[in-house]
Amino acid sequence: VLAYRAQIGSSPSPAGQLVLAELAAYGDLARHLRRLRRIMPTRRAFVVDQLRRRGLTIRGDDAGAHLVVPLPTVDAEHHAVAAARRRRVALD
Which residues span the membrane (predicted)? Predict the structure, then answer.
């Protein structure tokens, strides 16, 4: 993993690492992960269902918290990103 990250120039977020360290230091990480494992399947299923109802193709729908939704044009991507921001949905 480290070699691959070095090759593509990717590294974990320093802020994310600090949050993770704090959760682990105070014993809250296990509780947080249990909570996520409990609530994420329902949230994920809802998002996947809504995207599929709109005829979108989904990749990685069995890969944790992330999904890839290829869009047909750059304009479609810009529209989707703007709509998500208006609804306070984070996209990467």
Answer: none
